Amino acid sequence: MASLGIPQNTIAVLQKHNFHIQKKYGQNFLIDTHVLEKIISSSGVTKEDFVLEIGPGIGTMTQYLCEAAREVVAVEIDRKLIPVLAETLADYKNVTVLNEDILKVDIARLAAEHNNGRPVKVVANLPYYITTPIIMGLFERHAPVDSITVMVQKEVADRMQVGPGTKDYGALSLAVQYYATPALIANVPPNCFLPRPKVGSAVIRLTRHERAPVQVADEALMFALIRASFRQRRKTLVNGLCNAPELHLTKEIVLESLAELGVAPAVRGETLTLTQFAEFSNIIGRKQRSQTPE
After folding, report:
1. Do 90 and 148 fall within a single domain?
2. What span, in angstroms and rounded, lies between the C-alpha atoms of 250 and 43?
3. pLDDT for 216 beyond 80
4. In sequence order, what are the beta bridge partners of 153?
5. pTM to 2 decimals?
6. H-helix or E-strand spanning residue 54
7. Is there a domain that residue 179 lies in?
8. Domain-terminating residue out of 141, 175, 208
9. Cα separation, 100 vs 261, whole angstroms
10. Could you report the per-residue pLDDT of 131-176, keeping only the tens digit for each?
11. Predicted confidence (pLDDT) per residue in 238-250, tens digit
């Protein structure tokens, strides 16, 4: 029976192991059982599932996952937490703890070894400082992931799900929505954590698309265009792209491509939809290829 998620139990474990919370790892431990139950239920984890947990901490959510799933692999970067996890997870025989950096883990190998190669469900209470690299790393490496249910900073959750024309809309919004369907599950106040973070949090579920919602010839080019478009939000799309040295775009090509796309030359990147960025990328790609000598 899961025993963590209650403040006094979490404090007792930390004190017993003389564990000092590491700011560099963004450690904030969940101490609210209702939030933990909400995460597990919204993740859709069943006894048939293999789950990858990122950043188990002292094993609070891991205990709940072990009770809900067939098998859990928990990846923890802080080696000082490994002996703590050995104790808090001692009663669970369906969990493996890896002392590794999730950005370097071969998730395809984990899926092959533990899930017959089928996509895995990812559940995590992510450190805020590395949320975007972790989520985008999973997507961009095309890791075999079915869904990602994560606790993130509220501001980041907002950016993942908004559309064009809003202040939170940007490269992260477009990237997440290209790979997955985002759904906000719950807002979580600071008092649900130990220590309390200075900002609010949210649980969001990202369900991976079976097929991308837009067809793009060159994924890398599209995301390079998107990143350059939002790098200087006050600038027009033309200026933003022409000032991006990695793109090597002339003003002529950008203006011609915008005209073909059917939008005004003074447009800003924040007004374009994912569909428009995909089409814009395809147009620019065609023009670049036609100008390349054979």
Report:
1. yes
2. 46
3. yes
4. 201
5. 0.90
6. strand 50-54
7. yes
8. 208
9. 45
10. 999 999 999 999 999 999 999 999 999 999 999 988 899 999 999 9
11. 999 998 999 999 9
Specify whether 35 is located in the same domain as 176. yes
- CATH of residue 251's domain is 1.10.8.100
Token pair belonging to 229:
């478009």
How many domains are there within the chain? Answer: 2
73 plus 174 within the same structural domain: yes
Give the model's pLDDT for residue 47: 97
* E-assigned strand segments in 106-251: 120-125, 145-153, 180-188, 193-194, 201-208
Task: Classify residue 2: in a domain, yes or no.
Answer: no
Type of residue found at 271: T
Residues in the chain: 294
Range of the domain at 242: 219-291
For residues 156 and 171, give the distance between their C-alpha atoms in angstroms, rounded to a whole number. Answer: 12
Distance CA 117, CA 7 (A): 38
In a domain, 214, yes or no: no
Convert the pLDDT of each residue in 49-80 to its tens digit. Answer: 999 999 999 999 999 999 999 999 999 998 99
Among candidate residues 139, 258, 270, the one with its CA nearest the CA of residue 206: 139
